[in-house]
Specification:
The protein has about 230 residues and is of the alpha/beta class. It contains nine helices and seven strands; from the N terminus they run ααβαβαββαβααααββ. The longest helix is centred in the N-terminal third of the chain and has 22 residues. Bound molecules: ligand LLAZDA3J and S-adenosylmethionine. Ligand LLAZDA3J binds next to helix 1, helix 2, helix 6 and helix 7.
């Protein structure tokens, strides 16, 4: 099935389908760099010891586990995703004795099952590009954060430089798609490039976050602008 413009159900099915290969392919295709980018996002979300943190669109849970390390045993971390196969892997990959225990919740990022002003910090990794309503998703994040709390949103980004842009396009088409094809996931990974074409660039993301109500917003291009982190404080 070719995924160009996509419904919420198609996105959920895609991430359920790729779940068994997802972590391995991320490590291979980014040469492990996605772990560094995720560390940066967690740092920018400013989690504090004993804090209550949220990882929206948590997938297999990398960011939630990093948040858990930051908040320590007196803190609390919730990981939310709507793809049950991703959550199953998140649960498997989390050590039973890890403190704090992470609470994994199957839910929609557009309707978070939390009270307003609940979280001290939040992260979202590679989720914003995939939600069907970006402004609604930002408003929902704003709603659940406490005043003064920060969300860091990591995702692909289009570099300014034509050379870096050409390299990114080439890498997605000539490396990512053929490698994922070997695992029978060609169409699923071919979806990344068009989803990136539709995704607002950093400056547009800043405006969207301000419109959602965030008071202090910065976008950091990373990896030569091929990735970016939107950091927004309520
Ligand atoms: C963790 C990463 C991506 C997660 C991800 C997001 C999506 O929206 C998907 C949609 C459909 C299928 C899969 C995903 C998905 O895995 C980021 C790293 C993985 C990337 C595939 C690697 C991309 C690398 C950069 C374009 C270039 C880096 C070059 C460097 C020399 C390694
Ligand atoms: C590319 S994965 C990212 C997973 C993880 N955050 C990471 O960085 O590795 C995107 C995740 O967003 C989830 N997702 C997309 N739209 C969602 C929505 N509306 N509600 C909840 N989860 C959603 C997908 O199920 C998928 O697990």
């Amino acid at each position: 099935m070719k995924l160009t413009s996509t419904s919420s159900q198609e996105i959920q099915a895609l991430f359920d389908r790729i779940a068994p290969a997802y972590d391995q392919l991320n490590d291979w295709l980014s040469l492990g760099l996605h772990r560094v980018w995720k560390q940066m996002a967690v740092k920018w979300s400013q989690p504090v010891l004993g804090g209550t943190c949220l990882d929206v669109c948590c997938g297999s849970g990398d960011l939630a586990r990093l948040l858990a390390k930051r908040v320590g045993s007196s803190g609390k971390v919730y990981g939310v995703d709507f793809a049950p196969a991703q959550l199953a892997i998140a649960r498997q990959r989390t050590l039973p004795f890890q403190q704090p225990a992470i609470t994994w919740i199957e839910a929609d990022a557009l309707h978070l099952p939390f009270d307003a002003n609940f979280f001290d910090a939040a992260t979202m990794g590679y989720g914003l590009r995939n939600v069907v309503d970006i402004p609604a998703s930002l408003k929902e994040l704003h709603r659940v954060l406490k005043p003064g709390a920060t969300v860091a949103i990591l995702d692909f980004h289009r570099p300014d430089s034509a050379v870096a842009q050409a390299f990114q396009q080439w890498y997605l088409e000539a490396i990512v798609v053929p490698l994922s094809e070997r695992m029978g996931l060609r169409e699923d990974y071919a979806y990344i490039a068009p989803s990136l074409d539709r995704f607002p660039i950093g400056a547009q993301q800043i405006t969207l976050a301000q419109t959602a109500g965030f008071s202090h917003v910065i976008h950091y291009p990373i990896a030569n602008g091929m990735m970016g982190v939107l950091v927004a404080t309520k």
